[in-house]
Amino acid sequence: MSNLAIFKDEIKDLIDDYMNAIDSAIKTKIEIFEEGQKKVVKKVISQPANEEDIVAEENALNTSLFYDGKLVLDKEYTINITFYGLADKYAEFMQNRRDYSIIHFIIHTIFKEIIPKEKKGVFERVFRRIEELKKEDVHIRLNYIAGSFFNEIISNLDIIEKDEKNDSVLLMRDLDNISTLNYEGAKVTAKLIVISEKIKEKYINFIVKLQTPIPYSSYRTVRKLLELSGDGIFVIGNHRMIFGLGKLKNFSEANRQNVEGQMLIVDFLNSLNYKISFINFISEEISTTVKDTEAIRWSYEESLIFGFQNKNLFLRESEFPEKELKLSLSRAFQKFLEEEGKEYGIVVDSMIDIVRLAAKQKKGTTVVVTKPETALKEIKRLSGQGIQIHKINFLNMDSEEEKEILINRLTSIDGAIYLDIYGSCYAVGMILDGLAVEGKGNSSRGARYNSAIRYQNLKNESVIIVISEDGMVDIIDRKSMLEDNKYTQPIEKVEELVIKENWITYQNKSRIDYLEGNFDAALQSINKAIELNINDAFSYNLRGSIYTGLKDYGEAIENYTKAIELDRENVDAYNSLGIVYKTIGHYEQALENYTRAIKLNPHYKYAYFNRGLVYTELKEYRKAIDEYLAAIEIDSRYTGAYNSLGNAYKNIGEYQKAIDAYTEAITLNPKYALPYNGRGNVYRDLEKYDKALEDYTKAIELDPKYATAYNNRGIFYKITKEYDKAMKDYTKAIEVDSKYAAAYYNRGITYRDIDKYEEAIEDYTKAIELDSKYIIAYNNRGAVYQEIKKYDKAIEDYTKAIELNPKYALAYKNRGTTYKSLGKLEQAEADFAKAAELDPRYKQKEY
Do the Cβ atoms of 4 and 54 come closer than 8 Å? Predict the structure, then answer.
């Protein structure tokens, strides 16, 4: 066997030892080539031989990480290492940010230690060094490497001056020491943001600023300060010291400036248990209460770099605690189930399956499991503190899919879901009461966790599982309560915290209610949040959105303006203010605010899109097209912009371009109903009726509550004289949207075509009630009155149409014929002359 082949086997064994110490699921594949012989193995791996390989290969690539580099042994080589079995999210993130990959750092460190500078007898020296490394304790080695890696990523945040000593810079030993300290008997669970000094003022909204910054080496003081964090409030520091408490802000700007690499989150989970994460700023398109208007919600997510638990390095987030839950449930219910003649192991396993499904709830939830008798008593006692339901037994459901969907929905609201040990659900959204216990609870864990602690102290016949939004699962039962610091003395009120009422909690509750359309409840919570903190721009921004939902546009404007006063770079507030001004018809002010948003962030696609909508309202379609194209240039997959682009091209008669835009939107998102409707309108105008019908029907299939599509298909059926089908579609549009004036108007036209004049008048009247400026509805109702010889009413309607639009030639012409029928020839001639003046088609002739 050649020296190179031996080296390949030996280095693989060494690397496997390191990877197994981190995660036994990680597997490696190593290939070594002479320089120039073959390039990165990734290119070979990604070329499957057949269709079955494509599926398998995609799965492998999703959980793989690649290392490629050069080695100088007896000559220069290229080495490619593929790491399999990593968590999908971790592998994907690290492949794009190798500077944050501890695996790459480990490999780099190994090669640095085993490759000698002296090339004489190189393989012999390398083999000897590999053997030495294999004899060392791999966990100690990994701790050392991780410490060096942490130093490197911390130094990347800010340039560390040469005269700065190690004990003045944040080190991993500081994290170890901080994590082991108790505060009033409780373990630390808190979050620290370490951010570059250069950007902290721009991207941190300081809530509390320390007069004198605290060095990390002041462990007990740091520990006390960490106790104040939680619910979106972080301890804020740079690479040397802590400055106070604050929140992240300016998410869109941070994303645009790519500052993520200049900040980290250290998440303290327990004693000698913490994780270090990269921050990703992410955006989500959200619908607004304003038709055809899009907005954006910014948030952030944490991408794990690495973590430690009891000095063991981990790269995978914590998993569902099945063993711990099984022990807790068995401890609480084994005796009861055996007395009931049940096989407790089977019952407990079934309950674990239910909790596992509940743990998928992204918003977090609380699951209470107790005995049936206790459940009935508690539901009665807690009536009014939740939603009681007819008992549902999840274990009796035939479909696992339906069970998962139902559990997901029932756990989506605030409060606990109440179950008995047999899997029956009695109530949802339960507010758990109980006694506060001195030293129990943890302000950083939030209200859900602390409510469970208090309730368990009052009712110890239950097991409570708390699933946090960050995925953490806590199991609370009587035994764990007694073992955890042995607090038993209840007190009459909850202990005072430094922050007595956490305004973030109210803000979060308000946001959830707002997204679910519960505007009154959202307003109540956000008012409380602002009362507790009058200087948070996001709270005013959110209250502006709530008032927009309530259609109180004056209050919305006032709140968005306040948000901007507090944060002059608040792009979202400018955009939202523009939306309100557009809604109330103040187009110039809308354009002004969208333009300000764009000046602050030239890559803010939603402002371009919304500016395009204003130009569309103003019928300045060329300008609208330019705006939509600008949004698409920023995001080539922006389906909403392609759809609106299609609308604009249709309005100027460029039908093929409209079809192309709609088709691109459909290609990007085949389940997006709007472009099917728009393309159907174009095909209808081009008299390609089969294609129009196909698109309208597809839009309705995708969105059965799409009133506009029903209305437009109704127009199609009227054109093809299929009046029964047209009537059915108009009626369906009205059922979906009882305030849809155009549907009443169009149904009125159809009634008139089939000589049902009273029904036509009724529908035109309803359209006018819904839209008092519906000019054409006045004209058409006048035409019906004229046909049934109610001339006075006809003249009244034509006159109203003319008042609303003095250049409406058809209304003059129709009023003229009505005057003629009444023998008022002078008035008739005047109206005919005016009609001809406005529209040559109505040149004076005998009517």
Answer: no
